[in-house]
Amino acid sequence: MVFWIIATLLALICATVLGLYGLRGGASNVPPAVYDLQVYRDQLKEVERDLARGVIAQEDAERIRAEVSRRILAADAQLQAADGKTVSHSNGLRFLVGFGAIAVVAGAALIYTRMGTPGYRDLPLQTRIAASEQARANRPAQQELEARLPAFEMGDDVPADYRALIDQLRDTVAGRPEDLQGLQLLARTEASIGNLAAAHVAQSQMIALKGDTATAEDFAELADMMISATGGFVSAEAETALREALSRNPQEPRARYYMGLYLMQVDRPDMAFRTWDTLLRESTSDAPWVPLIREQIEELAWRAGVARYQLPDENRRSGPTLADMTAARDMSPEDREAMIRGMVAGLDERIRAEGGTPGEWARLINAYAVLGDEPAVRDALARAREIFAGDPENLEIMENAAKEAGFVE
């Protein structure tokens, strides 16, 4: 109700200003003949001055007086003819001004009812967070979402002998539910032919069979299959799989990408932006999720309230990448730690020399935290706080990076 009162008052003020301006313009709408008469009278005075100074002869002065007098009579006749129309013109102008004022107010109300959101309440931060939590709690189940999509049909491009092998694999796994390798193969096979609902069922059975030995990659693969089976919607079950993956490895890239997607779907663009921005800056340009993020993150930044967001350079390397960390698994523990420390030190030196983006600072803090170098974490966090003291949104990105890596002050 308050909105409508304010909007109506603003519309009336605008209409009043326009009306007063129109009426004032109408009041000064003097007939042209009045100005002509003034000019002609000034010309007569000029003739008398010229005659007194001897600039013109007497006969020329008489001729000019006659011509100017004729024009005065003509202008006076025009003025008399226009005088009778002044009242009707003024009334017509007032009618137009009044009609315009009504049109402004009514038009504004009509446009708002068509294009605005009448009755929509204000959404303070706590209200939006509560709405997000409600959306999260009421998310449809995986099975319900899959039921909305067309049932799977194997394409004609699948050869008959391959179809027979798939049927044989299904029968074998059904008869040997404890066969871990069989379940892994079945999940991948079903996913390869697009039967994603059956794929995530097999993947779930495989994870249940693994128990506590199930990895972050196993759960990320399960979430990938579930989300793909619903056409991109993150169900409650898929969310659980994502959180299981991230609890085992907070750096698991697919889980982080899908977690950002999930946060968008529950209307938390602030958290989604931080998740995707950090992942984007930590990934190489050939990572499959990079083009998906780059396509949407600028709009996401705007929704998160991040002004003047700039996409990171696709070809810029800023320290150890996910591929580097994966390659390090094949090294001895000493070589692995030395390689990682060297990369982290290189990132730190470059940030000191050239400055760094919020995502690179977050990555540096996270890397030191993962290495267990608490003094370095404190030092990097202190430097970041000093540099981004006037930018609470970006500072929060770095604070969250330290918390996600397990660093607690």
Sum this structure up briefly.
The chain has 409 residues and is mainly α. The protein is built from 19 helices and no strands.
Explained architecture:
This protein is mainly α and 409 residues long. Helices cover 75% and strands 0% of the residues. It has 19 helices and no strands. The chain starts with a helix and ends in a 5-residue tail after the last helix. The model has no long low-confidence stretch (mean pLDDT 78).
pLDDT averaged over residues:
78
Radius of gyration: 39 Å
Termini gap: 47 Å
Query: How does the helix and strand content classify structurally?
Result: mainly alpha
- Rough outline: elongated
- Figure out the total of helices: 19
Helix content: over 70%
Largest sheet: none
Strand content: under 5%
Order of helices and strands: HHHHHHHHHHHHHHHHHHH
How is the topology of this model organized?
Blueprint: H1 2-27, H2 32-53, H3 58-83, H4 86-115, H5 125-137, H6 142-147, H7 160-175, H8 180-192, H9 196-210, H10 216-229, H11 236-248, H12 253-265, H13 269-282, H14 289-303, H15 322-327, H16 333-354, H17 358-371, H18 374-387, H19 392-404
Structural features:
409 residues, elongated, 0% strand, 19 helices, mainly alpha
